[in-house]
Amino acid sequence: MTRQMTGAQMVIQALKDQGVDVVFGYPGGAVLPIYDEIFQQNDIRHILVRHEQGATHAAEGYARSTGKPGVVLVTSGPGATNAVTGMTDALMDSIPMIVLTGQVPTFMIGTDAFQEADTVGITRPCSKHNWLVKDTDKLAETIHQAFHVATSGRPGPVLVDIPKDVQFATGTYNAPRKANLGHYQPQVKGDIAAITAMVEAIEQAERPIFYTGGGVINSGTGACQLLRELVDGTGFPITSTLMGLGAYPASGKNWLGMLGMHGTYEANLAMHGCDLMINIGARFDDRITGRIEDFSPNSKKIHIDIDASSINKVIQVDLPILGDVGHVLEDVLKIWKSRGRKTKSDAIAKWWGQVNEWQAVKCLTYENSDKVIKPQYALQRLQALTEGMDRYITTEVGQHQMWAAQFLGFEDPHRWMTSGGLGTMGYGLPASVGVQIAHPDSLVINVAGEASWLMNMQEMGTAAQYRLPVKQFIMNNERLGMVRQWQELLHGERYSHTWSEALPDFVKLAEAFGGKGIRCSDPADLDDAIREMIAYDGPVVFDCRIEKHENCFPMIPSGKPHNEMLMGNDSTEGVIQSGGAVLV
Amino acid sequence: MSALSLKKGASRKSAYDLKNPLGDLVETHTIAILVDNEAGVLARVIGLFAGRGYNIESLTVAEVDHTGHLSRITIVTTGTPAVIEQIKAQVGRIVPVHEVHDLTVQGPSVERELAMLKVSGKGVDRVEAMRLADIFRASVVDTTLESFVFEITGTPDKIDAFVDLMRPLGLTEIARTGVAAMLRGA
Q1: Predicted complex ipTM
Q2: A576 Cβ under 8 Å from any chain B Cβ
Q3: Which one of A157, A506, A514, B133 is CB 3.0 to 4.6 Å from A543, fit for a cystine?
Q4: pTM of this structure
Q5: B109-183 has CATH 3.30.70.1150 classification
Q6: Mutation target among A158, A187, A283, A309 for the B interface, most CBs of B within 10 A
Q7: Which residues, in sequence order, are CB contacts of A531 under 8 Å at separation 6+?
Q8: pLDDT tens-digit series, residues A311-348
């Protein structure tokens, strides 16, 4: 289908043809023609955020909870620069996102015009790819290419910068199937010889472990099913990164919990002691590896990844498999089954004996209190009272995020939205807005810290406007808890600027935004308060007053290997040496 | 010590005191990259090098296929074998990049660079400059009574040697293109 229309009309038509139902945006001078077209149609719903960063995180929440790309529409200059944090976040966590920005008219580019910024220049390192469209005839094709690039291979954010005169001018519209998508076609099928070698390694392994990441979830629910089949079929233990939680169910019998800096004792020691590590869609992040030289010293390492640059970047592996997780696992299962589903079951049973000993340490044990709410207790109760519900969790960044990963269980993919790679405080509230837009009837909870939450609290206005019943579960310790913990361990307990002074009254704040406020500080009242939060049909800010000085354990200190974990406060004296102190 | 004294194992050591894990075994590689000739493509490639801390020893770029809108970027870079592999993988995932060739690995290859040198002087120095240029098979592309502009083509080493010889003879200006390279054979 080719027909003539204005650039602004093309934007809307292209979004419709790409199956977009929601756009998160904020208007401004350079996108007025597009907003005029939005006004005159009903197919695409526009969600007005309160800050462009909120639009990007909402789009991320939408994308992570649906598997579809998130779409953002903002104006030139500050609109675009405000989107940079969310784009960087999406780049680090491989989230498909299309950002459409207005730009000053082509004849004014380079003149320091009002609200002009070099948007493609600024966003070049924080996007997977970006385009400045100077010709209306190329606009539709560029938007189709943008969707292709954002969603193919390793997903990521892309940006299309559209000058205002290009939006007004008339040109030829090309439908997606007619668009030239260019040569960008990442390889999805893995090399069969390498996959066969992986099956042989599975058959011979005595102390194996699956180490899975966000790549499994990005590959889709089918890939998660294949993973479950492989894990249950082989009987190997499985751990996951923060980004990969939910790919294998937390209630599954082979689940060891999350690994890494605040991962479980059993997951980290199993990684350290294994003889076969199968990395599926994870990237050996520094939160995972600890000290590189001592990372899993005696294991053969297999790495399945769709991004060639992730392989051998940090850890040299023995067997790289380039391809999409779902495609590769399908072939692995096929070959493993055709060869008779073999594993060294006696050795695996012995390995489980060792793993069970580590599990018996019960590394997530904490000292509870009947006077003050412990953060771990708050999350255990939240988990117990929402179990089995149609539930989505977002988080901010910090201690609460790690406790949420430790104490909440995820049975399915796309249920857990958190800022992993970039660690963006202020992610959770707008992300919960995006999730609730995608799943209007589900329970959406943002597990937050009070400091992170304040960074994008303006999005409560968005929640109120669209009557989104998002639950803001703020674990309020009046501290930047994670930074405070590091100052305690690393900087001689000098708590430089890590307490939250002059905090707002969160109950009144909720009411000021048209929502409900709940405060709870007594462990005995907690269950009723959580039930009240869940039952309320509207946005809730839950001010959960928790213990102020609780530290998050277990912890692998910076610069230490997996087998040197801190299990509690009593073991922290002098733990981080100078080499580790310079690391983050 | 004052209240600022450090406790619990922390020290004043800076990050720069850490042993550089990429320390030894630095190699030089010539990498040829075929890209779509579109706005900003060179910025994407060199921005990647700058952002990830890779070296650029030399860089040349020009369109090589007018109808296909393809340009060839030739980069000479240095790094450990692991870093060189990362560079190729990182460059390879830039969307408008079609092909990445490590000519040093896929070699043998031929490398050529063009340079122009302005040498000013009179008398014996001028005669000596002309004589050396002849030995290096440099040609004179401009001359006045007090200056020559030499054009020389060759490997970077050969050009370095010629530049060193011209320096005491009145070398006033140098322009070099950077390396263009190609695999030998069919």
Answers
A1: 0.91
A2: yes
A3: A506
A4: 0.93
A5: yes
A6: A309
A7: A385
A8: 999 999 999 999 999 999 999 999 999 999 999 999 99
